[in-house]
Amino acid sequence: MVLSCAGVSIKVYIINTFFVNMLLGFMDILLVIIAFLFLITGLLGSVIPALPGPPLSYIGLLLLQWSGYGGFSPAFLWIWAGITIVITIMDNFLPALMTKKFGGSRLAVFGSVIGLIIGIIFFAPMGLLFGPFLGALAGELINNNLKAAQIKSENTSEEPESQSAGNIRALKVAMGAFFAFIVGTGAKLIVGSFMIFYAVKAMFS
After folding, report:
1. Terminal alpha carbon distance of the chain
2. 196 band by pLDDT with thresholds 50, 70 and 90
């Protein structure tokens, strides 16, 4: 009787262990799938303004690590955390810094973002390049017209900027916004691509 009970207990233990291991294996596979979804979404976020590209890619690396398939060292994860923070800060402040450096307005920054969105939706892939430039140019020209109208309505002694000088400055601002977009987007694409490379390498190593 004791042996019979012991045999039943062993069978129950084996069955429970089997199902637990199967469940854990399923969870690991699910984490891997979610991790690569984050990595791919992060890469897309390099060119889509609404998505924070590098942070999403880094979350993908962490999920892959938690799945047991990553095998990344703590130093590796800390280094990529630092790179993610630096790239994210740069991406948030570079457009404003470049626009200010070239003497642009907030409308130029806003226009570059709107131009990028319109370029992605209606004129991809070339819209990714020309959208920010044309948007910043349009935004700065609108700002020039608003400023000239304000000076005229206030009847001050200040002379409004000539149209030719305003157009030249708007072109410079647009070039600055375009340069900031190229640098920021390029850096995010490089970071996102490297994270996917290391993730795929970890899966097959």
Report:
1. 50
2. very high
